[in-house]
Amino acid sequence: MEIIEQNKEKIKFIAETNVSLANAIRRSVSEISTLAIKEVDFYKNDSALYDEIIAHRLGLIPLKNQKLKQGELIELKLKKKSKDENTFVKAGELGEEVVYPEMPIVLLGKNQEIEFVAKAGIGTGLEHSKFIPGLLYYKHLPKIKINKEGESHIELANNYSDVFEFKDKLKVKDATKCEIDNDDLKDFPGVEISLGKEIVFNIESWGQIDAKNIFNEACKVLKSNLLEVSRALK
Length: 234
Fold this sequence. Notes:
By secondary structure, the protein is α+β, with helices and mostly antiparallel strands. The protein has helices spanning 19-28, 51-59, 154-159, 211-233; strands spanning 2-6, 10-16, 34-45, 73-81, 87-90, 104-108, 113-123, 134-146, 164-167, 169-172, 191-205.
């Protein structure tokens, strides 16, 4: 296993595995439990947006993944009246549970007012996409072979600067960023692309949990599901 990039929001690594397992892990991301707003009670809304539109926007605000029991809810209250033209209501006004406090909810005009109570609870992406904590995708790691004839193709370094570089001769800079195939290389003899057993995983977090934990939690979900199937077959 080789880690290419890693921080809280994103992780990129290479691992030798099969596509079936990689796809099973990807699908398991939808079964990770996270916190999101489930329902909203409006008491006042003078804005240009309907209650339903604001409720939809609230549901998509990433919240810190508090450990709540299934069925347990927390309340996020907001009340604001605009004294000036064009006053933004931002997600941070809901409280400390919000991951990105600068996310805009709605724009209020002068003397417009909004008041609501939002209720957040635990759910999974199988229930609604707002509970999905991030994005996991993968691809085969391309194997790029450059022989003597292909070392002079400076055009590839110019056209695909993320993948190739030219220093006296053509070299591979970063195969993980390669999105081309042999059809794209038909005019460049001496350069060939094949697929090996290694898979490049990319995981991006929406903020509820770290990117690394998305992968770990997806693996736990998959393991739990497999154990359930195993018990059922006994």
